[in-house]
Amino acid sequence: IAAVDGADPSEGVHAFLHVNAEEALATAAAVDADRAAGVAMPRMAGVPIAVKDVVVTQGMPSTAGSRILEGWIPPYDATVTRKIREARMPILGKTNMDEFAMGSSTEHSGYGPTRNPWDLERIPGGSGGGSAAALAAFEAPLAVGSDTGGSIRQPASVTATVGVKPTYGGVSRFGAIALASSLDQLGPCGRTVLDTALLHEVMGGHDVMDATSLDEPVPAVVEAALAGAAMDLTGVRVGVVKEISGEDGGFQDGVKQRFEESLDRLRAMGAETVEVSCPSFEYALAAYYVILPSEASSNLAKFDSVRFGMRVEKETIEKTMLATRAEGFGDEVKRRIILGTYALSAGYYDAYYGSAQKVRTLVQRDFDAAFAQCDVLVSPTTPTTPFKIGERIDDPLAMYLNDVATIPANLAGIPGMSLPAGLAPEDGLPTGFQILAPAHEDARLYKVGAALE
Ligand code: GLN
């Protein structure tokens, strides 16, 4: 990896910010030795994995893509990191991402962009572009991602890989550097639905270190993926969400075509498809871009030059804090801190944050009504195939619009998957198919996804 990827950020895919070669090789060698000696070991032992840099890893740099955390080596492991180590999976390194997971293209990383292995001129999605690109470039078979508004599913879509955002609380967030705590969810990324299920099983489960962790067993995702591979969907009701399925414009022709073809395939396997309407989705994007900056502005207050990472020394502590934050944070992070601070300020709180929370409830009600009629809901994951690096960097609104189909799931806390839907005929680039299920029903994603794959 270091030779093809990590050496020079201006060349190649640049999926990794840090390559953990020595430790990964040592873990692999220990697994080999124990296997030769007949020692029993976990099912995923020896399978290498890449970890998004938002997840802390003891002894390895963890920057969340930000210069403000450059050089910080966490003294502890995230729960997910601990579980990966206990599963004896060699950690290949830390993957690039938009700074603090704010973005849809990985161009907002403080360490230079990641490129899409399908076309190096194009974005690999974001914020978890590094994890998705590592999979698509065959630099890792599995990766950890985080999804606050689509950062697992959207990169999966534009790199033709698989990504799952579990039910909120299904995977511990302890040790995941927080963006927006009510929306954040760690999840598995892979090249196939079954691989992704196997990682989901490793990552998931109750954790006393995370107050929002669900106290229930990991859903039977591996069994569901195996069942789905039989390609029989008799009795499964699939709802096509009108508002995010391309009827209202902004969706590329090839994306719509591949989506329709996937629906045909679901019907051929016995599924019944119905159209459902979720009228509040029209306001979901706007609500998200109030709630997320509000929570982020609060979460990022801890980067104060005293506790972690970078410090730009000035005459007084106030000046030191200001200078550190001015230098350490990138433009997109500053934009969102300003937006969030404004939305939470006295006199504006009800008008902005309060209204956004009401929309959030309406989105949840739309999902409840839709799931009363269907087992899963589907849409294209992203409106377009990957765009060119630089194309939307100066237009935040165009960047935010990318998330129109992925954000509702985060607002409602429900699970979602993106899997490849084929290349768009007009540009030969990946399109993605999104599947959503009710909270706690993550297994349904894997059954339908494995059937479709
Ligand atoms: N594009 C979304 C944003 O910029 C994705 C966030 C995420 O899922 N981490 O907020």
Mean pLDDT: 95
Distinct bound molecules:
glutamine
The tally of beta strands, per DSSP, is 11
Largest sheet: 11 strands, mixed
GO molecular function: ATP binding; glutaminyl-tRNA synthase (glutamine-hydrolyzing) activity
GO cellular component, one term: glutamyl-tRNA(Gln) amidotransferase complex
Family: Belongs to the amidase family. GatA subfamily.
Region (Disordered): 105-125
Please characterize this protein's 3D structure:
By secondary structure, the protein is of the alpha/beta class. The protein has a single domain, classed as Amidase signature (AS) enzymes (Alpha-Beta Complex). The chain contains 15 helices and 11 strands. An 11-stranded mixed sheet has the order 1-3-2-4-6-5-10-11-9-7-8. Strand 10 and strand 11 form a beta hairpin. Helix 7 runs parallel beside helix 15. The longest helix is centred in the C-terminal third of the chain and has 23 residues. It starts with a helix and ends with a helix. The model has no long low-confidence stretch (mean pLDDT 95). Bound molecules: glutamine (GLN). The site of glutamine has 14 residues, from loops.
